[in-house]
Amino acid sequence: MAVFSNLRPIFLLLTRSLRQGELNVLISALIIAVATVSCINIFTDRIKGSIIEEASNLLAADAQIRGSMPIPSEWEAQARLYNLVIANSINYRAMAFSGDFTQLANVKAVSNRYPLKSHLIIAAQPYTEGEKVTAGPSAGKVWLSSRLFAALDIQVGDNIEIGDASFKVDAALIQEPDNAQSAFGFAPRAMINIDDAEKTGALQVGSRVNYTLMLKGEKKDISNFKQWITPKLGNHHRWRSVEEANRSVSSALGKAQNFFLLAGCLGVVLSGAAIALASKRYAKQQLKSIALLKTFGLRPKQVLTAFLVNLFIIGSCCILIGSITGWLLHQVLLMLLNQFLPVHLSSPSVSSFFIGGISGFIALFAFAAPPIFALRNVPPITILKQQNDYVISSQLKQVVLGVVATVILLYIYSQSIQLTGIIFLATCACIVGISLLSRGLILALKKSSERLSQNWRLGINSLHRHQAFNSIQSTVFAALLMLVFILVYSRSGLISQWQKQLPENAPNHFIFNIFPDDKTAVEKFFADKQIHIEDLYPMIPGRIITVNGVNTRTLARESESNINYRRELNLSWANQPGPDNKVVSGNWKGFDEEKLYVSAEQNYANGLGIVVGDQLRFSVAGYEFDAEVSSVRSVEWDSMNPNFYMLFNQPFLKDGGENWITSFYLPEQKKNTINLLIKQFPHISIIELDQTLEQVKTIIDNVSKAVEFILLLVSLSGILLLVTSVQATLDIRLQESAVIRVLGGQKKLIRSRLLIEFFVLGIIAGVIAAAGAQIALYFLAVEVFSLPNSFYISLWTAAPFIGAGLIGLVGWISVREVLTLSPLYVLKNH
Amino acid sequence: MNNTLNIDPVNARLIDNVNVSPIIKAHDLGHTVSLGQNQLSILKDINFEINRGESVAILGPSGAGKSTLLGLLAGLDTPSEGEVYLGDERVSHLDEEQRADVRARLVAFVFQNFQLLPSLNALENVMLPLEVQNAQIGGSKTAKKSTVELRKVATDYLERVGLLDRQLHRPNELSGGEQQRVAIARAFACQSPIIFADEPTGNLDSATGEAISNLLFDLNSANNTTLVLVTHSHALAEKCARRVNMDSGFISEIN
């Protein structure tokens, strides 16, 4: 305690500084930085935690065998011999309808022992918390996910039809263990008893069905059974363990977490810059006090220790408040995204607060400490000098420390040296570019200000005089506005632009699972209704096993493509490729060829290195066959016609087994046709693209809201940086204004000078932001979405006003005391 | 020019027959500062000795080097050449940590701009150097005191300067004269043997300045401290036992 009593004089100064608000900006910046990072980290940690917590439950079993073919009964018998408990489920899509309402549902038919692990949660009302149950619905009953209740306009107790079968709606299915990603899926869940699966009429040869055998037992029994079954799995069944099931979700969440944390990093760095400026100002204010204390005999070491202890105490308090604020803010994020998240989230881990705390201390000691710690070197002789010209700490040293801290934070958030390097260099290039541009604009304005009125000339001269700080302000705000504009315009602009791109009367519905026996009847149905349908294509699920004898799995592992080569493909055949297909290499071979040829889609082929002449081996329903690649095609996927990665020149299965697919345009007023179609062909699956687009828009809207929320937090840091950088020029502004007023200048003149300076600065930031956003949107549209470039006139008109309004307001509030303080007071005290 | 101030032993004895040993010594003192690539000599060949209890005024026009000399004598800065002794300590050759210790034991200040901390009230301002002294473990001239004891010392000196009833007022609630009284109370409350005063009446009107100088000299003689003051005012300088005139970094006259 002796140490603390020795530091009492500086504690006294600090408590008074706190009381007088001299540390407000520093404290606010630190709290915002910690809150931003904590909010993001707690949010992602809880979701990740929920999934990891239920890792063993993700499969509703200890292991699963999944496949597109029914599970052989021999395997089930063998599993029992290995002392394993088993359960079955069948997943497929079928139309659910009630009255005039229809909806494609993701049907899951479960056996009585399902789930083997964990539990289901059902409720009497959709979107409520519900209660745990350990078995699925009994025969004749269906449990529906909450979304289906609204889509079908039904309540618990009503009857609905799924395919050919009728079911009583027994409960709302709130959560199922082996469906972690269901929230993001398009087709909502309908869970029925496995005994009812056949009755729906949707389980026919060629239907896209997934069969699952769930296994539970001792680890060694599972392991022994795995050894027995692995050689028998073939190409249509896969063994899934807990680790595998968890990997993809964890990886996706990890990426999302990194993205959000990198956005948070921007907030921390902006706050760090605000902290650096605020602490420099604070140190400057304390300079005479420390020099005075030194004349009393205070030692440099005592100064250092006192500020170290003080900063630690302040930092700890700010981190505590920031963490609590982060917790509250993460609740807002949960609210924004609640419809996509699991109902039950795990508690946040202590470590999720840790990154926020670490970020806070790094920001504090890298950005705030240098000028404050440098106070120990203030020579006591300073007290005798009239001019306050002592330079507290080297600017270069401070910048270097800030850069090192930024790199460390980037690495902590991205966990990747490469990403850290790329982001750091790109950010530096942006800062330098925007800064040079803003300086150039300020200079150009100054040169052209000769013809303007006196007030404007004074304002622009002042802008030029403070250009070092002004370019920081315009850089920060231009960058922030740019991010907001990119987000807003890519959300609203690009989607509507894509919709406009679609040709008029482009197909807006897909129907598939059309069985060969129904093909003619379906065509007649549409002909009777005078609705044009595109060509019908056969479709059979299958896999490519080898390319020129090399296993596809090996090739897929080496591939840099983001296409999932592990999934089954829909294989088809035609005499001619569709009009939206273009052969880019090789030649198309039609029905007249005796040999079986296949044409590969360009991107799919490139990913596996497939070229014309290659020999591909396919596996379809256990039957293997070879085909030579005759051509490679480019495909216009957004034509809304059925298209395929692999298109053969003739049928490859002698005994059929295919189902058919087509697409058609249905105007809104003929929507009822779907109900008639479903009634007549209940096993047919329909994808209503107009609804799908709505769902995509809803998802993008909600995710954008979350990103905007993070950006809002980052913007708060930016506003604080603006305030501190304006305050850094406050003393000189006070002196200039005091001299002008003493010389007879009116308040009005000073007011208009300041307003013009900030408004012009805001316009510059707005124009730079608009230019940056326009360039980014160009690349997004042309390079990413393959859309024509648009010139966003609203962006160019709104941006300067938004910039001027925002910077003008914040700038004006920050320096308004220039007008309120008396010139005499200013000249005596500053 | 001989810049050595020779202490008149008779005069010194008149001040204090007991303490005739010098408490401040400056030998061949010189100070140079860098202005870009140029070196500017501020003080040259200063030789100085001041006995305990003596009062000495340093006079001279602006830029003569008075304040620089005061800073060097008080151990606030280190000279470019020569030596400074405060008591037995060769402060010119000590590092900042050691000089801070010496200042805590031997020196107190009164400044032209009062240098009161605006966030603290009068009492806290007076207590501040006492707290610093109290914080120096070992080497302190007084044993460690409790906050209550420090407060007692501070209120005692505020009473001596007639500001007991204003002890809870902040500097901005006090007049210039009152602020300087608080600064004087702060300097004497330290009970340091040497008081350095830099233009103590420079910011005050003549009547207030007169009152302040009287207070300063009264307390100085009551406490038997050594007073070194820098001033433009000949009237104030006349109150000192001796006067040192400076010009362009040299001592031009001693009387």
CATH homologous superfamily identity of chain B:
P-loop containing nucleotide triphosphate hydrolases
Named CATH architecture of chain B: 3-Layer(aba) Sandwich
Amino- and carboxy-terminal Cα gap of chain B: 16 Å
Helix segment tally of chain A:
23
Distance between the termini of chain A: 38 Å
Number of extended strands of chain B: 10
Radius of gyration of chain B: 18 Å
Shape field of chain B: globular
**Rg of chain A, nearest Å:** 34 Å
Mean pLDDT of chain B: 83
Unreliable spans of chain B are 1-19, 138-142
Binned, the helix content of chain B reads: 25-40%
Compressed to H and E, one letter per element, the order of chain B equals: HEEEHEEHEHHHEHEHEE
Beta-strand percentage of chain B?
25-35%
What kind of assembly state do the chains in view correspond to? heterodimer
Structural class of chain A: alpha+beta
Largest sheet of chain A: 6 strands, mixed, barrel
SS field, number of helical segments of chain B: 8
What is the domain tally of chain B?
A: 1
Q: Can you walk me through this structure?
A:
The complex is a heterodimer of chains A (830) and B (255). With 830 residues, chain A is of the alpha+beta class. Chain A is built from 23 helices and 22 strands. In chain A, helix 7 runs antiparallel to helix 10 (395-414), helix 8 packs antiparallel against helix 9 (350-373) and helix 13 (467-501) packs antiparallel against helix 21. Residues 180-185 of chain A have low confidence and may be disordered. In chain B, 36% of the residues lie in helices and 26% in strands. Chain B has helices spanning 9-15, 66-73, 96-106, 122-135, 147-160, 176-189, 206-223, 234-238, and strands at 22-35, 38-51, 55-59, 81-86, 89-90, 107-110, 194-198, 226-231, 242-247, 250-254. In chain B, the strands form 2 sheets. Chain B has a 6-stranded mixed β-sheet with strand order 6-7-8-3-9-10. Chain B has a 4-stranded antiparallel β-sheet with strand order 2-1-4-5, with helices on one face. The longest helix of chain B is centred in the last third of the chain and has 18 residues, at 206-223.
